[in-house]
Amino acid sequence: MAIITSFKPSTLEMLANNIADVDPQITGSVIHHFLQQAQIEDVSYSEQYLAKRKKLYNAFASYQNTYKYANNIIAFIQLLLAPQRYLGNEDMYNKVKEAINNQLVFEGLFLNEANELVAVEKASKITDVQIRVDGLRNKLIQQAAHQAIFHFCNEELLANNYFHAVFEANKGLFHRIQDLSGLTIDGNTLIEQAFSSNPILIINNYITQSEKDEHKGFCNVLKGLCGMFRNPGAHEPKIEWEIIEQDALEILGIISYCHRRLDKAQKIRLA
């Protein structure tokens, strides 16, 4: 991992407060355990009556003062946010992660869906953070959009870049079809070969006429996405193809639906 510049004291304080206070399951012993795993000395561990948020801040500050970077603090956060710790409690996981990310953006950093640290435009005021909280990405989370959407265009979503979010999400959808089918072609040719009358992939049992009609309809939806929202993006300058937030939400909703159908797709022959 590249060297992460030391965080401002205010960032350390708010990170410590949010980590200690948002989730009641993050106890003093949990904090101590993960500090040890992240190789950060718990300098206030023996101070029995000190609040856990203060103990955590002291550990963070002492570490930064000694080593002059923030890498192990991020390692601590990533250990704390391991998804398996929050199985069955996704709402709390999202709440803790959002609180942490709302502080990291002031350092120009963000933890993505895979808990990987990515660089984002640094926030300088509260409204900068609010844009991210109320923006396109969070609206998609509220709509329970498919995780593949975030995988393929997370950075564009964080920036509320509607044009490139749609563009990258479409590329990601077609890339997934290539992976599932084993085909290396692209665009409508890919769709026709993967979902033809002699399909490589099927989205249902593909036995009854109704199932075949549904399969054909899905194929047409994919062709529509390719024609309307992928091919134009490959050829037209961004300034000539305006997409507002509502457009992006609805297009990404269709792409999310396609990913859900692909979740249950079956490969019935080789490419």
How is this structure best described in words?
With 271 residues, the chain is mostly helical. It has two domains: 9-123; 152-267, no CATH class. Helix content is 61%, strand content 4%. It is built from twelve helices and four strands; from the N terminus they run H-H-H-H-H-E-E-H-H-H-H-H-E-H-H-E. It has helices spanning 9-21, 28-37, 52-67, 71-80, 90-104, 126-133, 136-142, 147-158, 162-181, 187-194, 209-235, 245-263, and strands spanning 109-111, 117-119, 201-202, 266-267. The strands form two sheets. Strands 1-2 form a two-stranded antiparallel sheet. A hairpin with a 5-residue loop joins strand 1 and strand 2 (117-119). Helix 1 (9-21) runs antiparallel to helix 5, helix 9 crosses helix 11 (209-235) and helix 9 (162-181) packs parallel to helix 12. The longest helix is centred in the C-terminal third of the chain and has 27 residues, at 209-235. The radius of gyration is 23 Å and the shape is elongated. It starts with 8 loop residues before the first helix and ends with a strand. The mean pLDDT is 88.
Outline of this structure?
Helix content is 61%, strand content 4%.
**Structural class, judged by helices and strands?**
mainly alpha
- Separate helix tally: 12
Mean pLDDT figure: 88
For the largest beta-sheet, the strand count, sense and barrel status come to: 2 strands, antiparallel
- Order of strands, main sheet, comes to 1-2
State the helicity in percent bands: 55-70%
End-to-end distance, in Å? 39 Å
Tell me the strand percentage band: under 5%
- Which shape, going by the Cα principal axes? elongated
The number of strands is 4
Supply Rg.
23 Å
Quaternary structure annotation = single chain
What is the H-and-E element order?
HHHHHEEHHHHHEHHE
Task: List the domain count as a whole number.
Answer: 2
Low-pLDDT runs: none
